Amino acid sequence: MKNVVVRNVNASLNQSVMLKINMIRKAKQSDLKSVGKLMLQEFSKPPFKEKSSIKNILKSLNFYLKNSEIYVSEIEKKIAGVIVFNIELWWEGKVIIIQDLAVKEKFQKQNIGKNLMGFIEDYAKSEKGKRIYFGTSRKSPSVKFYQKLGYKINKDRINMSKKLK
After folding, report:
1. CA end-to-end span of the chain, whole Å?
2. 145 — phi, psi (to 5°)?
């Protein structure tokens, strides 16, 4: 899938009209540093409080750029948000696994996350995907956001992990 352009028009009370263009496009190698800074900044805040370094984030982004999909949302040529995902083949068919979704704080509450989720849903449908999966913190305010978009908390599953030595 190529670029998707979503237009948001905000009319000000003065006679002028401001047009913001939110373009979603495939990330390039040259975007990774900006994307990494965005992710480091947003995921270090509560409730996630992730402890990482830009070096580790860039390492993971380079991996995802080669092996999965990374798309960025731009407003006025600045990266406002990012979605990282991969497609897996499960018994039910193709499923989309969202690894990360982040929106820069100054662009939050401007439909960037909603547009990225709409993009991933359209992408999944174009790939004949059957389902979209992702995890987030139970304490995250984004849970309500996802529920408004029709996502449900899976009561039958929990995410588990074990770090191997």
Report:
1. 39
2. -60, -50
Q: What is the pTM of this model?
A: 0.81
Residue 90 near residue 124 (C-beta atoms within 8 A)? no
Domain 24-148 has CATH 2.30.30.40: no
DSSP three-state, residue 97 = strand
Q: What is the mean pLDDT of the chain?
A: 83
pLDDT for res 2: 40
Strand order in the sheet with 93-103: 4-11, 17-26, 69-75, 78-90, 93-103, 131-133
Angle at 136 between CA 153 and CA 37, to 5 degrees: 155
